[in-house]
Automatic annotation (TrEMBL):
Transmembrane segments: 7-30, 36-53, 65-87, 93-112, 119-140, 146-165, 177-197, 209-231, 238-257, 263-285
InterPro entries: EamA_dom (IPR000620), EmrE-like (IPR037185)
CC per GO annotation: membrane
Name this polypeptide is given: Permease of the drug/metabolite transporter (DMT) superfamily
Length: 293
């Protein structure tokens, strides 16, 4: 097997590990704050030896206010997204949180004076139609799902916000130390939230702690590491668009392992959303290439 095929297979493996996130969160029997906190805490513990060995000189960036702000936004993103899975179907949650690239395009238009051309507008419109299809169906079938859909949608907004605000720091700091600093601050903020909410830090049973560890190792450490590695050999657009496979895989796994029904309106709305994200992302990438040329 040649190297190019191996990279694509590796990228597919990364998307698979990312897709496990929603399933593991769904089967955890713990408050969303606890699940988010331990996912980040175990991630930081796993990454600390490498950071101390290879990137000790990057400690100074802990004093930069921007990673602190981005860590706060990441913490809120995890709280909202993990909470959404408690209220709505896993498929709905991952589809709505996948809207993050579209929010990023909108933020770039509003705050970075990036052009919002026809291709991006059509993609955003398609995603909006898909969101309405899913939400209207949930209103008539199970109104409680609307709140979960809203949480996932808001989680996507916070995800795009932390990526947008963190762009300036990422230009100065290598990817790994940046993520480590970001995860560390997110862990601190999540710990403060758990303490403030007076939720016990312990007493959740070995099964839950194994799930928390699985979230740290699988989707966070392995999944994101593979995506970061793949960017070295594949175009950013290919890696970014491959992530659209995550909601599809998660939906199929939720159907197979959790016996969640795949509702027709979720399929139709999901196709609109993912198609809109694909169209807008490809168009946005092409515009960036033209500017760089």
């Amino acid at each position: 097997m040649d190297f190019n095929k191996k990279i694509y297979l590796l990228l597919g493996g990364g998307v698979f590990f990312l897709s496990l996130s929603g399933i593991l969160i769904k089967i955890a029997v713990a408050p969303p704050l606890i699940t988010a906190f331990y996912r980040m805490l175990f991630t930081v513990i796993i990454l600390t030896p490498y950071f101390l060995t290879k990137h000790r000189h990057e400690f100074r960036y802990f004093l930069d206010y921007r990673p602190l702000l981005v860590g706060f936004l990441l913490a809120v993103h995890f709280i909202l997204w993990i909470s959404s899975i408690q209220y709505t179907a896993v498929s709905n949650s991952v589809i709505f949180v996948a809207l993050q690239p579209l929010f990023t395009i909108i933020l770039e238009y509003l705050f970075a004076r990036e052009d919002l051309k026809e291709g991006a507008v059509i993609g955003i419109a398609m995603a909006l139609i898909g969101s309405l299809i899913i939400s209207i169906a949930d209103f008539y079938q199970l109104q409680g799902r609307l709140f979960g859909n809203f949480l996932a949608l808001t989680a996507a907004l916070f995800a795009s916000s932390y990526l947008f605000i963190g762009r300036g720091v990422r230009k100065k700091v290598a990817y790994f130390p940046y993520l480590y600093i970001l995860y560390t601050y997110a862990t601190i903020f999540l710990g403060i939230a758990v303490f403030t909410a007076k939720i016990p830090f312990t007493g959740y049973g070995s099964k839950n702690y194994l799930i928390f560890l699985g979230l740290a190792i699988g989707p966070t450490v392995i999944g994101h590491s593979i995506l970061n590695y793949s960017v070295r050999y594949l175009s950013t657009s290919i890696v970014s668009l491959s992530i659209l496979g995550e909601p599809i895989l998660t939906t199929l796994m939720a159907w197979f392992f959790l016996k969640e029904k795949i509702i027709l309106t979720t399929v139709i709305g999901g196709c609109f959303i993912l198609g809109g994200i694909y169209l807008a992302s490809v168009y946005n990438y092409q515009q960036q290439k033209k500017k760089a040329a």
